[in-house]
Amino acid sequence: MTDEIRPFKIKISDEELDNLNKRLDLARIPDNIDDVEWDEENGVTVDFIRRTVSHWRNGYSWREHEAKLNEMPQFKTTIKLSATNKAGQTFDPVEVHFAHVKATQKPASGGPAIPLIFIHGWPGNFAEVQKALPALNAAGFDVVAPSLMGYGWSSLPRQPGFNMFHHADVFHHLMVRLGYDRYVVQGGDWGAIVSRALLMQHPEHAVALHVNMPYVTSSELSPEESANLTEAELAAVERFQWYKDYEQAYTAVQATKPRTFGFALHDSPVAMLSWMADKMNLWSDLENLPGGGYTTDEYITWTLLHYFPGPTTAIQMYRANFGEQMKQHVAEPAAKLLARNRVDNPVGVSHFPKEIVVSPRVLFEKENNVVSWREQQKGGHFAAHEQPELFAKDVIEFLTGQWKSFQANL
After folding, report:
1. Phi, psi angles (nearest 5°) of residue 268
2. Considering only CA atoms, which of 184, 146, 385, 217 is closest in space to residue 285?
3. By C-alpha distance, which of 273, 246, 259, 345 is closest to 123?
4. For the chain, which residues make up each domain, given as ranges?
5. On the chain, which terminus has fewer CB atoms closer than 10 Å, C or N?
6. pTM for this prediction
7. 6-408 has which CATH code?
8. Among candidate residues 202, 187, 210, 193, the one with its CA nearest the CA of residue 119
């Protein structure tokens, strides 16, 4: 097994682009349904799909966005874990795709650059961090942004049972291979969960964590705890309940029948667009985005970052971690194993008000050593992309301070 780090650029072939355009030309968009307002009960509208597909076919340039993505230096490397699933099957080696963007200045704490691994979630991608990179690099951070296994240009083992803890091990090996024996971590969505697993398994190396989705599976509050919730926490509890009532069905689908559902997303770019855009719109703080919402190009580019590599393996992550049928492949379901352990290294939280899944601080602290909790006034689930300045400021202040304390205690 080679430890080689191979330069990589995203380069979609002309043949693939031609195939995409043919599918867009032949898209079957229904015209026999009521075109109601876009809301949690009905999802994307016919008008939105028609307008977006028209722009996609006649005004959008993938090559322009591909070039922008390739401004981030990207690489691939092969990592082999020794771990096995419950059946004793050894996992295939994985091809890890990642961006590696180095600091442009020294950190305020002095010394060499601070290694930071940024871990995204679903339906996000490694490029979520791109808008925040100038600030992070100027503050002295070397940023490593991998694609989760099965996402983008990272592969997924064929063997069942590859869960959040295996992702965490892969990312630890990646950081060590890059020469970072000690590092800090940032995560949102799945990234927040994988990050906690990373600190649990490698606390001597992953020295501090910042998350923008502070979630634990426990939801039981005592009467006293409920009475002491802040206004922001009460709003977060209400939004979490909205998410569970109207938005969480996708989790059940992706955790139980990812392959069946994946055929539709894999075959149809319009299906992928509708699934993606629905989540982007309802999980974001649209009114505080420039122009009051995402651009049509943003919807399309995020869609293609799943569609071109193939979206089916990405949604397998829900089955591997939450699917009941996975009990035959793992000794203990990953979500339960995560809840039974605690992160003892320092954890910082930024709560953006339109985040969909937020546990009250009193619950999150039971499983994490929370030393900082900041309430933001705007922003949603895709914080690094939606509010890159606020996101970067919180990450820089918290992780620079923690890195300085860690270095002082060596």
Report:
1. -120, 115
2. 385
3. 273
4. 6-408
5. C
6. 0.94
7. 3.40.50.1820
8. 187
